[in-house]
Design goal:
- The chain is α/β, with parallel strands linked by helices.
- The chain has two domains: 133 residues, 3-Layer(aba) Sandwich (Rossmann fold), CATH 3.40.50; 172 residues, Dihydrodipicolinate Reductase, domain 2, CATH 3.30.360.
- Helices cover 37% and strands 24% of the residues.
- The protein contains ten helices and 14 strands.
- Bound molecules: NADP nicotinamide-adenine-dinucleotide phosphate (NAP).
Amino acid sequence: MTNVGTIGTSEITKTFLKACIASRAFKISHLYSRTTAKAQALIDEFFIPEATADDDLTKFLSAPDLDVVYVASPNSMHFSHVKAALEHGKSVIVEKPAFVTPAEYQAIDAILQQHPELHVIEGARHLYDANYLAATEKVRQFNEITGATLAYMKYSSRFDAFQAGQNPNIFSPKFAGGALYDLGVYLVYAAVDWFGEPLSCDYHATKADNDIDLHGLARLHYEKFDVALIFGKDQQSFLPSEVYSHRQTLWLDNLGTPARVRLYDSPAVYTDLSQHAAENPLYDEVSAISQMFTNREDERFDHYWQLTGQVNHVLDQLRHSAGIVFESEQN
Ligand SMILES: NC(=O)c1ccc[n+]([C@@H]2O[C@H](COP(=O)([O-])OP(=O)(O)OC[C@H]3O[C@@H](n4cnc5c(N)ncnc54)[C@H](OP(=O)(O)O)[C@@H]3O)[C@@H](O)[C@H]2O)c1
């Protein structure tokens, strides 16, 4: 079994640990936190006494029984954590968005070229979701795509704190937060996975005083159609997502966490394509990626790595079109 260690101790790391335990995918061997007690608290909470808690990153990454590192630090720190893990001979699962700039992606790509035995895979969890995969199968069967409207907008649990004058990482340019990099990335991923890289794209963002984007509208332009992206973190939307092929419409109730998928042949006639949705949103992803490591599926790793680069490139173009500048790219 592949041994995994985690960086970060927030809710998403807990969800990842639960998914590992429920799916019996990875063996959790090490937890890193800036505060050992926080890592130890997770070891206790999830009854994994065989795992080790560490607050020394080099020691954590040097552990001989550590194979894969799950990086769930703030966005702007992904690059340095991924680079350090690779330099210690460990493969990586990095939370979305994997990197902030194309330069970061290219620097990691250069390391991977030198170390074909290592892999980096982005935690774009919806790509592995059974309902997303059911939708993908139908999208690929359409003879012609005539357009799409993709939506993902959730009122953030940290927006009240942001409005109260606190500075949560996810609303901070220092940590590469904001609506596009946090939630828009799911929609960009679906568009690039389904239709490829757009010919051009632009993003119109509504921003806060610190210049972070709170919500907005993006357009991806393809040769024969356009894709509209609607996303945000400061308001709540119940819009579904749709892919059009003239009379037919592929419909998902929620592209971020799809539970219902339909193929409409006319307004009143549809085929229900819905699959069982796992309770844990990372369950399908963790199961799929652990299989990829176990079976050494190099081509699949390579496919997802190329996708990561394309998504990174589109995110970068969208961000610049909206005039959003992150602190890390000024260094
Ligand atoms: N796939 C999903 O469904 C999903 C959901 C939520 C988030 N995410 C992704 O997961 C990542 C983490 O998001 P989050 O909202 O959980 O982030 P966060 O709470 O801001 O930080 C995550 C962890 O990073 C460490 N950290 C926080 N601030 C730091 C700093 N200034 N310097 C160094 N380490 C710091 C903390 O761990 P320690 O205190 O233990 O060191 C913290 O638990 C992001 O990339 C986000 O996009 C994915």
